[in-house]
What does this fold into?
Amino acid sequence: MNGILRTPDECFADLPGYDFSPHYAELPDNDFGTLRMHYLDEGPRDGSTILLLHGQGCWSYIFRDMIPVLVAAGHRVIAPDFIGFGRSDKLPGTDDYTFEKHVRWLTTFFRTMKFDRITAYLFDWGGYFGLRIAAEHPDLFSRIALSNTLLPTGDAPGREWFINWRAEQFAMPRFPQGEMVDDGTHRKLSPETIAAFDAPYVDETYKTGPRRFPMILPISPDMPSVPENVAAWALLAVWKKPVLTLFSAAFAGTAMGPEKLLGHIPGTVGQPHALLADAGFYIVEDQPLELARRLVTFAAD
It folds into this structure.
């Protein structure tokens, strides 16, 4: 498989709250021929589709509590793992991962799944990639909900904090995944849940994708993908389809808050935006049922 790593299936046995069947899409790739992207596909096939995209430190496991609520409301729910994460293929080298490659892999996945005017819930990196794809391929989406995310255009006001955080993470002998989620939640996770976030990564060689994420985020004007993201941000200035922000209340008025989105995207006007209390960065862990409830209402409008 040209150096591709695949986590053994037994690593995913008996994870708490995660009783979902795996599905796989084969994606063509210039360097590796074909890559296998894992995704969850729950609910009725004829139901309206809700897409869930995860972020740093996690994989589709983070949506385990949201999915049953969305399915009970009659939706088909699809939650992929990014290449390098979860049950998806993991590539051997750091240069195998770029922002543009992730955008391309996800766009190919969306086309493979024949998405058409779906509802998307984008958390963290899910928004970094998803907003870019939505701007370039608006036919794929009917509405978008966003949590603790933005489209990175190289002008991040929190750049210094992020660089310091990145250095701290890389200084650890083990690149954290479950611990990273636990550190970013309002409530502390159980040891079993922390272990479940770590389950896809047999050893450090499996973590090249997660390790690469902090390095490819376009946080300064000279970084790759900035021109493409700036162009996409301009397109979002005329996006009139519904856009809902569901952010952690602690981030209101900061560089990680929703204000830039609310002031730029016309589709945010008149939507029932919310700032959720008792939520850290990993809002999906802290407030899964409230997020799911609001997403059901949003998708039904």
Q: What stands out?
A: The two ends are 45 Å apart (CA to CA).
